[in-house]
Amino acid sequence: MMFFLEHGFRVIAHDRRGHGRSSQTFLGHDMDTYAADVAELVEILDLKNSIHIGHSTGGGEVTRYVARHGGTRVVKAVLISSIPPIFMQTATNPDGVPKEVVDGLRNGTAYNRAQFYEDITIPFYGFNRPGAKVSEGIRQNWWRQGMMGAATAHYQCIKVLSETDFHDDLKLIDIPVLVMHGEDDQICPFPTTGARSVKLLKQGTLKSYPGLPHGMPATHADQINADLLEFIRA
To answer: Which is the catalytic residue, given 29, 55, 56, 181?
Structure first.
């Protein structure tokens, strides 16, 4: 956000309901409501010619919002390390993330999330790879952000991120969309998420990054920000 402020852009970030500083409501933890929340924020702020950027589950949020609510207000979108078109393994998505892995995420958020949030930062940022430079600041900041939210919201969000199908949403989007994905993403595997999403978009562009992790906006901020800026200005 600091990078784009310094380049003269207005930058707005929202905390998903139950996450971060948002109210810790028990209700509305589904992708339709997430997208409707964004739509309400956009209407209140009367945003026009906006560019929506989402990382991981946020990329699903952007996809559902643009497909159903974007209208004339959104001119471009970016999906970074994102969950679409569908995350979990199903009969129609045999290469997705296995259900037992998803169940591990559910159990971690439900029963021991303080330790789970600390542990998941290792694969999230690729810190388990040979030669990786581990940043304790990045790990602690991720943990801080996680523990700010509501446990029930995070638990229910695992179902949302793993089971929501975005195939139809992606096909509806007719604005330019940049899909950015690390090829060593251990959370949202590149071949089954980013690489497939771009094939469903009318104006999709794929930019993949050999060796980069799920959390590449933090570990490789200079590279990701520069590529985002180029897309935005194009």
So the answer is: 56
